[in-house]
Every structure is written in structure tokens, then in C-alpha cells.
Specification:
single chain, alpha/beta, 18 helices, binds iron/sulfur cluster
């Protein structure tokens, strides 16, 4: 029985958690595509607003350096396949990125149209228009493989970094085996992002497209440190890429964190993403979310859309300090999520083993800019409390006899150079398990960069 299901059968009288708060048709509406795609006419009109800038700042703002003016130009001339080719050649997960990228902080923020009429080109939506259009075509193959090199590379993790790395390596003629612990590919796009952002099973369709290149074998149920080991992979393969993401979750550090109803946001989001019938998911009437990032927004909006009556997101600093973008914050408020800033959790309150509320203390900055509690407190009643205060890298699967085999950086993630090379020969890493922006697009860039470096290293070895 899942943790969520346990809550449903808990039977605590003081707690109001139940499934099926909405009518069946409301779930479909609430978890459908949040950004309806552009149709052909609107896409061409939008593409014609682009100034096709020389030295375009939007390209520099894209972690995967997609040639944005070129693909937009192709859309404007109705060459949609060509546009998709430009996008996917730079970023094989351009379809997912068009849905989940914080474009308002990347390419669209850099767009010169912002200063001209305050409205950037809708780059994300145009990118989606092109890539969706390609995927829907029967003949959508645009990549091919070079002749086989005879080299075998192990990729750990089928998330954005791993899939991106595997695709590039397979293009170069290498044979790739992806080892994935979970039953599906896609990483956070499949398991960790709000359902309404990546709707209609898109993460699986995209992964299938990537694997259709050939030369990539994916093995599920294979976790590092359990079914496979780094030493074994190094022995059996010519190179190893680690794209294993973040498996740990930060704790609040409060007593009573074990109370029923106190949940990790990422666990609930994963359950929700995999639930065929969202109406079967138990959700509290009063929900408190603790955190200030996109995961906090994703859980808060999703539980609201599951029918929670009162959802409050509490963050210990101000809105400008939240890692969730302005767009995400506004989106949460438009979904009737209440944002409560400058407050930190002090105490979890419970009855009969179940959480019933959270006591918070107001916060402020002292004269040196350090966060401190003011001593004033307030209490929010809660049937469910979601912790969304960040994830951590779990290094133990890489350890040998309790000793770190790979060098870690100051934040405890895998230390890499600019090519993703780790401290151990023949082992590269990228994505969230290394330092950098925790974004799908950044992970895709890491995977591709490492694949280019691996290919170069294998060729140098061959000719050396
Ligand atoms: Fe087009 Fe804006 Fe990029 Fe210029 S900056 S090329 S207007 S999308």
C-alpha cells in the first residue's frame, strides 16, 4: 500500500483527507495541458514578429544554444520540419523544454522585443509548435547513426542528462546501455514535474523518439549500488556517464516530522504523476506547503487542483528570494494558492499520530542580512503538510566500503570539469547530480557536452 493510500485508510476523525473531492470531468480539466499549443496561423503570425536579430541574445540565453532566429524563420515560411530539425539538433529534448523551461528567465527574457513593445516573442510556444508537429508526423526521423565504432558506453539514469548523452553517443556510432532504476524513462519529466506541464504522456513519447535512433539499449530496475556498481561498469564498458539525479530530500529538522500527513512533495508528485485516475488520490482539505521553489509551486497547485480547499505555501524569505519564477508564483496565486512569506516552521502539531497543524515564526533579516526569527508566531491548521525545501545528492551508491570513489564538490555533488569529466578516469557526470542550474535544459546540455567529450576521448585513445 502506498504512503498516500495509507493516509486514506488512517481513519483519524480530526483529519480531513479524502479522495474524489471533485467530479470526474474536473480532474481531466485540471490536469490537462496548461499551455494549449499554438495553431498554424497563430504560430506564423508570432514567428513574423521576430526581428531575426544578428548576434541574437536569445541564443546566448539558451543553455543548449538553439539557433532560435533560424528555427523561427523556418516556421514563418511554413518549414516546420526544418524548424524542428534546428531545435532537436541542438537540444534533443526541445519538446520537453518547450513545456518546462522557465523561458521568462532564459530566452524570452533576453528577447529584444521586450524593450520594443514589452512582449517577447513566444519562443517556448513556437518551439513546442515545431517539435509537436514533427512528432505527430509518420515520417519523423531526422537523425541517423555513424558507422559502428565498436565502443560500449554505460549511462546511469534515463533522465534528461542520460537520454541526451545516450542520443549523442549513439549518433556517433557508439553502442549505449542505459541503466535506469525506475520502470519508465524520462526522469523528472516523467516523475517530478506537475502533470499539467507535461501532459498526454509526452515524456514517454519523447523518450521513445530518442530511443528510436537505434544503438541504445535501456535496462530498467537497475540501480547503482544495488543491481550495478561503478566498478563493474568501468570494467565492462569503455566509458561511463552518470546522470543519476538527486535521490535525497531535505528534512525540516523538527520533532514530530514522522507524523502521518507530513509528506515529501517529490514523493506525492511522483504518485500523482503515475496515477491513472487522479480522483483516487487522497488529499487534505487544508494543506500547508513549506518551500519556495518550483517543486513547492507544483505540489501546491496540484493539490489545489485535486480539490484541497485551503492551500498555503509558506516561505521563510521574500518573493524575490524564491527560486520559483515570478510566472510560477503568479500561476500559484491564480490557482488560489495563498503565499505566506517571511515565516519559518517551528513546530509540527499533531493528534493521534497525525499532523493537524504547523506553528510558524515570522522572520526578518538582521543588520548583516542574516535571517532570524522575530519571536512572533502563528499557527496554520493542516490535514497535510508537504516538505519542498530541496533535494540532495545521495553519494552512497558510488562509495566503496564507505569511502567516496569520486571526488565531490563543496555542495556534496559529483565534482566535474567543464566537459563533465569526474575525478576518475573514464567516468563523466552531468545533470542534477553535478553542480549547476537544476533545470531540464541544463541537464540536456550537460549530457550532450559530456557525450562530445567521451567521443573525443575514445577517438584520441584509439589513435593515441
Ligand atoms: Fe527574435 Fe527575440 Fe531572438 Fe531577436 S531576440 S531573434 S526578436 S526571438
Amino acid at each position: 500500500m502506498t504512503r498516500v493510500a495509507e493516509l486514506a485508510t488512517d481513519g483519524e476523525k480530526s483529519v480531513d483527507i479524502k479522495a474524489g473531492r471533485l467530479r470526474p470531468e474536473q480532474y481531466a480539466e485540471n490536469f490537462g495541458d496548461v499551455h494549449p499549443p499554438l495553431d498554424r496561423n497563430r504560430a506564423i503570425i508570432e514567428a513574423n514578429r521576430c526581428l531575426f536579430c544578428y548576434d541574437a541574445p536569445c541564443i546566448k540565453a539558451c543553455p543548449t544554444s538553439i539557433d532560435i532566429p533560424i528555427f523561427i524563420k523556418k516556421i514563418s515560411t511554413d518549414n516546420v520540419r526544418g524548424a524542428a530539425t534546428t531545435i532537436l539538433s541542438a537540444n534533443i529534448m526541445g519538446g520537453a523544454c518547450s513545456r518546462v523551461c522557465p523561458v521568462e528567465e532564459l530566452c524570452e527574457q533576453a528577447c529584444v522585443r521586450n524593450t520594443q513593445n514589452g512582449q517577447p516573442i513566444k519562443i517556448g510556444q513556437l518551439q513546442r509548435y515545431a517539435t509537436d508537429n514533427l512528432f505527430q508526423r509518420p515520417n519523423n526521423k531526422i537523425f541517423s547513426r555513424r558507422p559502428s565504432t565498436g565502443k560500449k558506453i554505460a549511462v546511469v539514469g534515463a533522465g534528461p542528462a542520460g537520454l541526451s548523452c545516450a542520443h549523442k553517443l549513439a549518433q556517433e556510432g557508439h553502442s549505449v546501455v542505459i541503466f535506469e532504476a525506475k520502470p519508465k524513462a524520462g526522469g523528472l519529466n516523467e516523475y517530478g514535474i506537475a502533470a499539467y506541464k507535461v501532459a498526454n504522456d509526452f515524456a514517454q513519447k519523447e523518450a521513445a523518439y530518442i530511443l528510436s535512433l537505434g544503438g541504445i539499449d535501456i535496462r530498467h530496475g537497475q540501480a547503482l549500488g544495488k543491481q550495478i556498481t561503478l566498478a563493474g561498469l568501468r570494467k565492462d564498458y569503455d566509458a561511463v556517464f552518470l546522470g543519476m539525479g538527486l535521490a535525497g530530500v531535505n528534512a525540516l529538522g523538527l520533532e514530530a516530522e514522522v507524523l502521518k500527513g507530513v509528506e515529501n512533495a517529490v514523493d506525492y508528485i511522483e504518485t500523482l504523476r503515475q496515477a491513472a485516475d487522479k480522483g483516487k488520490l487522497p488529499v487534505g482539505r487544508r494543506v500547508v506547503v513549506i518551500g519556495g521553489g518550483n517543486t513547492a509551486i507544483d505540489i501546491a497547485v496540484q493539490v489545489k487542483r485535486l480539490g484541497a480547499e485551503d492551500v498555503t505555501l509558506v516561505y521563510r524569505r521574500g518573493a524575490d528570494n524564491m527560486s520559483a519564477t515570478d510566472w510560477e508564483q503568479e500561476f500559484a496565486q491564480n490557482n488560489d494558492v495563498r503565499l505566506k512569506l517571511w515565516a519559518q516552521p517551528k513546530k509540527l502539531i499533531g493528534a493521534h499520530g497525525h499532523v493537524t497543524g504547523v506553528e510558524f515564526e515570522y522572520t526578518q533579516l538582521d543588520g548583516k542580512g542574516k535571517l532570524m526569527g522575530t519571536g512572533d508566531t502563528f499557527t496554520l491548521p493542516a490535514d497535510q503538510v508537504f516538505k519542498a525545501i530541496g533535494q540532495t545528492f545521495v553519494a552512497s551508491p558510488l562509495q566503496d566500503g564507505g569511502r567516496d570513489v569520486l571526488q565531490l564538490d563543496k555542495k556534496g555533488r559529483i565534482a566535474v570539469n567543464e566537459d563533465g569529466q569526474t575525478s576518475v578516469s573514464g567516468v563523466w557526470a552531468g545533470g542534477d547530480c553535478t553542480e549547476g542550474q537544476d533545470l531540464t535544459v541544463a541537464a540536456v546540455a550537460d549530457g550532450k557536452r559530456a557525450a562530445i567529450a567521451i567521443d573525443r576521448a575514445l577517438k584520441e585513445k584509439k589513435h593515441g
